[in-house]
């Protein structure tokens, strides 16, 4: 039914897919019946929550066969959401205080064809909310340049320990390495917890290092403050690249023999074959590594 | 009235009541029953460690002997939950160490366990008996050494599928010679490199454990050691072998065969790493007694599998690779009429082309031939609505049905239609269905069927399915018994979620990743529902650095009386009253 679309890193499509059928359904479905509200004013005094549908709504089938639900609102509740579902089925965001500050455009990464800004006071919403919403990532939308076969994280849903069993089995056959998952732990000096990456989803050192930069960016810069500016992808990325490629950290890995080597010295395939874990190390600690890596290569040749 | 019975009598009566639900019901009868019950409850199961705090648990149940905790959401098994998310057991162990000196059992699933916590367990509880660490991580063999050394009465040490860092050393030798109480030892997740000292420590340990009933070895234990172990433990009921391959020497084979025939109580077999088909007949003598066979670590092909399985007439549970193929499953359907559970795993899921002939036919055959089949996990590459109709018709007694068609959004390969009708038949016919995982091409219609018919469904897993919010709406409004809902890569958004907010308090948890739930909706939900923790997990940076209508990467919502947790990493934000004020 749906064709996988091209996606950028965040998972937004570059085209808006046709979703008229479902949008029609959605339009007819969200009807607040005012008389229901009055009928339910008694119930409104109960200790209930203010959100629509917070008690089991009585359902009536309407002509389209879709179950219409009536929303109840208790007196003291913030009516923001129920206001939003108005008769015409449009879902408008109310001009609440928390929207006022959002004069921010989508980040440049969003390549939606249409203007997709949702700013303050924007009640005018296209007829289908779904059309504006960014698309979900599909099987190809992993965001990294595809390896031999593009792999979606966590799909098919197989436990890691099984994959590692399969990995050893697969390597015995003449499979391209890209068809096998290889999760390695990545630790960073000073970070409170480590991460895991599947190095077979990358096909070059550049991809691996930029993925790691994104993953660990929150540690090197510190917590993003509440100022929106720091969160801009462009700014944070360039700062991080400076940190990683500049002086502070180097990327190292532990190989099959248990030795720690600098990443980048050997061809990529050799690296994925022998890498057992990764460590982002402070440059000052990594001084002894380079000569050994070269020495080892010489020994292996 | 309650005071017509002395407390001691009521306590005695309550001691026969074991199930959690019954205990909970007892505690609701009246205040005095609540009080009596809470003092005599010995066992507790906490399905989400963040739903409650150690302090609350201890305050209500001061005399527990057995605690079970679960941490990370299920999708953590597939690497969808970033490392560092949470699920730390240390605060629990700290609190229980002080409050429950007589604690005997600790069962953890998907939690992060440190060596310090293990050491604390080993030293705080004098009568500690059972430690089960299922899919846990964060600890090393040093932590295991503390357990081995200090738990004098240890009965069970079960590390099933945990991620243990092997620091070498020889932790098995830390079990004192005086330790003879072991009943169950599962170390199958440990590494494949072991020293000779470790192996001999293992042999001695097994030799001095006359009550050992369950032994699951790791890959490091070579085949020629297995016979020795079996001879020292002929009373075993469950065995997981180590590596099942070696040079084919006749004496090894006959030794092994003899050892197996000595184990007359064996009911369950697993392990079989690197199994060589010619070695398999060594187990034939005990096959007729087997009820459970797990070959999901073995690369055995169809014909050898069939030979083995046809010896196991009493099999109730079979886990196997898709090497078994349709033909093997047909043979299974012929020989194993007591089969209750079947799991078929993919041997090469990332291959572009199928490497085996495993299709919907295999599962249909089993559904026809095995009248007691109630639990299915099946990975394959193609399916049809007709096959699902047949399975549903044959097996209305299904309670767990998980079908994974490997390529997302794959339609019925004959009609090219979505598989809505097929899964609809499953939920309509299988009235006792408690767990369901969907796959293939699916529209909102399948969710309409599920919402209408799956009234006993407790856990539902959805991926790459649906067209709109309607899908989610049907599930949340229709599935009365739903406790756990996990969704990935579906176009479900704010409307359905917000319209069914109250439903979320009746469930344990909801996971949604790569869907269309906006940050604004998350904030609203968090503000309005104080007894829900609404966690936004987003590795792109703080959600307020993007417009509010932007979807969040991942969303985990669970009911809790503990309030927002305090141990969140940098990429997790809890939506609550406070956050909304801070961000506005």
Strand order of the largest sheet of chain A: 4-3-7-5-6
Structural class of chain B: alpha/beta
H/E element sequence of chain A: HHHEEHHHHEEHHEEHEH
Distance between the termini of chain A: 53 Å
Which percent bin holds the helix content of chain B?
A: 25-40%
Low-confidence stretches of chain A: 1-148, 170-179, 221-242, 291-295
Apparent shape of chain A: globular
The count of DSSP E runs of length 2 or more, i.e. the number of strands of chain B, is 23
The protein's oligomeric status is: heterodimer
Largest sheet of chain A: 5 strands, mixed
Number of helices of chain B: 22
What's the gyration radius of chain A in Å? 26 Å
Residue windows where pLDDT falls under 50 for at least 5 positions of chain B? none
What is the tally of beta strands of chain A?
7
Q: Helix content range of the residues of chain A, please?
A: 25-40%
Strand content of chain A: 5-15%
Mean pLDDT of chain B: 94
Describe the fold and architecture.
The complex is a heterodimer of chains A (301) and B (584). With 301 residues, chain A is of the alpha+beta class. Helix content of chain A is 32%, strand content 10%. Chain A contains 11 helices and 7 strands. In chain A, strand 3 and strand 4 form a beta hairpin. In chain A, helix 8 packs across helix 9. The longest helix of chain A is centred in the last third of the chain and has 17 residues. Chain A starts with 19 loop residues before the first helix and ends with a helix. With 584 residues, chain B is of the alpha/beta class. In chain B, helix 13 links the parallel strand 13 and strand 14. In chain B, helix 1 packs across helix 3, helix 12 runs parallel beside helix 13 and helix 21 crosses helix 22. Chain B starts with 6 loop residues before the first helix and ends with a helix. The interface between A and B is large, with 96 and 82 residues. Chain A: Homodimers and heterodimers.
């Amino acid at each position: 039914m749906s064709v996988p679309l091209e996606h950028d890193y965040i998972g937004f499509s570059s085209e808006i897919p046709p979703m008229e059928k479902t949008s029609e359904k959605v339009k007819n479905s969200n009807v607040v019946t005012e008389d229901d509200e009055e009928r339910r004013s008694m119930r409104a005094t109960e200790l209930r929550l203010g959100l629509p549908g917070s008690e089991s709504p009585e359902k009536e089938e309407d002509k389209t066969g879709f179950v219409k639900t009536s929303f109840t609102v208790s007196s003291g509740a913030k009516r923001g959401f129920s206001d939003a579902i108005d008769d015409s089925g449009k879902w408008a965001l109310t001009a609440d205080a928390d929207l006022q500050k959002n004069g921010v455009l989508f980040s440049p990464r969003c390549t939606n064809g249409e203007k997709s800004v949702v700013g303050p006071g924007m009640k005018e919403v296209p007829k289908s909310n779904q059309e504006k919403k960014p698309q979900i990532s599909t099987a190809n939308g992993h965001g990294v340049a595809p390896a031999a076969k593009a792999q979606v994280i966590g799909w098919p849903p197989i436990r890691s320990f099984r994959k590692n069993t399969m990995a050893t089995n697969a390597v015995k056959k003449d499979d391209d390495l890209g068809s096998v998952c290889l999760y390695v732990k990545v630790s960073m000096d000073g970070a409170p917890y480590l991460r895991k990456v599947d190095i077979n989803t990358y096909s070059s050192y550049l991809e691996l290092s930029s993925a790691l930069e994104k993953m660990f960016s929150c540690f090197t810069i510190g917590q993003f403050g509440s100022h929106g500016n720091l969160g801009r992808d462009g700014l944070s990325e360039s700062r991080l690249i400076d940190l990683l490629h500049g002086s502070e950290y180097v990327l190292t890995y532990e190989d099959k023999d248990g030795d720690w080597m600098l990443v980048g010295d050997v061809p990529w395939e050799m690296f994925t074959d022998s890498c057992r874990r990764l460590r982002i190390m402070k440059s000052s600690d990594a001084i002894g590594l380079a000569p050994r890596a070269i020495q080892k290569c010489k020994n292996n040749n | 009235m309650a005071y017509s019975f002395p407390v001691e009598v009521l306590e005695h009566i309550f001691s026969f009541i074991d199930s959690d639900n019954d205990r909970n019901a007892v505690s609701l009868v009246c205040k005095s029953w609540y009080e009596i019950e809470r003092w005599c409850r010995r066992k507790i199961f906490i399905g989400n460690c963040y739903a409650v705090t150690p302090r609350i648990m201890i305050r209500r149940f001061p005399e527990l002997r057995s605690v079970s905790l679960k941490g990370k959401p299920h999708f953590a098994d597939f690497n969808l939950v970033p490392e560092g998310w949470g699920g730390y057991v240390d605060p629990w162990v700290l609190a229980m160490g002080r409050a429950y000196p007589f604690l005997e059992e600790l069962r953890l699933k998907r939690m992060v366990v440190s060596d310090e916590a293990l050491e604390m367990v080993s030293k705080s509880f004098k009568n500690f008996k059972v430690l089960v660490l299922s899919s846990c991580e964060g600890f090393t063999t040093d932590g295991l050494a503390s357990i081995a050394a200090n738990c004098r009465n240890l009965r069970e040490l079960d590390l099933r599928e945990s991620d243990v860092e092997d620091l070498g050393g020889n932790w098995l030798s830390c079990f004192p010679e005086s330790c003879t109480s072991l009943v169950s030892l599962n170390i199958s997740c440990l590494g494949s490199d072991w020293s000779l000292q470790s192996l001999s420590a293992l042999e001695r340990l097994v030799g001095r454990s006359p009550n050992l009933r369950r032994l699951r070895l790791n890959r490091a234990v070579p085949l020629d050691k297995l016979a020795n172990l079996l001879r020292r433990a002929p009373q075993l009921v469950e065995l997981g072998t180590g590596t099942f391959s070696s040079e084919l020497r006749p004496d090894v084979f006959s030794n092994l065969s003899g050892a197996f025939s000595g184990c007359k109580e064996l009911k369950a077999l697993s392990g079989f790493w690197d199994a060589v088909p010619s070695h398999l007949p060594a187990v034939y003598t005990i096959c007729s007694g087997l009820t459970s066979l797990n070959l999901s670590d073995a690369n055995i092909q169809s014909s050898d599998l069939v030979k083995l399985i046809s010896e196991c007439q009493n099999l109730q549970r079979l886990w196997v690779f898709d090497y078994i193929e349709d033909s093997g499953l047909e043979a299974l359907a012929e020989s194993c009429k007591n089969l209750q559970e079947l799991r078929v795993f993919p041997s090469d899921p990332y291959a572009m082309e199928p490497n085996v002939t495993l299709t919907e036919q295999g599962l249909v055959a089993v559904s026809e031939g095995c009248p007691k089949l109630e639990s299915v996990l099946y990975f394959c590459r193609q399916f049809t609505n007709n096959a699902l109709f047949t399975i549903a018709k044959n097996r209305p007694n299904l309670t767990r049905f998980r079908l994974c068609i490997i390529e997302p959004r794959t339609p019925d390969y004959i009609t090219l239609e979505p598989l809505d009708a097929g899964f609809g038949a499953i939920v309509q016919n299988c009235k006792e269905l408690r767990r369901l995982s969907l796959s293939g091409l699916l529209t909102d219609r399948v969710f309409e069927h599920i919402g209408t018919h799956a009234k006993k469904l407790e856990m539902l897993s959805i991926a790459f399915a649906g067209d709109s919010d309607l899908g989610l709406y049907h599930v949340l409004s229709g599935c009365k018994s739903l406790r756990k809902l996990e969704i990935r890569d579906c176009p479900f958004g704010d409307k359905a979620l917000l319209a069914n907010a109250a439903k979320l308090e009746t469930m344990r948890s909801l996971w949604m990743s790569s869907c269309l739930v906006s940050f604004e909706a998350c904030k609203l939900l968090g503000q309005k529902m104080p007894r829900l923790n609404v966690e936004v997990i987003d590795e792109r940076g703080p959600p307020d650095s993007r417009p509010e209508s932007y979807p969040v990467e991942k969303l985990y919502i669970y009911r809790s009386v503990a309030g927002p947790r305090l141990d969140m990493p940098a990429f997790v934000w809890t939506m609550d009253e406070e956050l909304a004020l801070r961000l506005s």
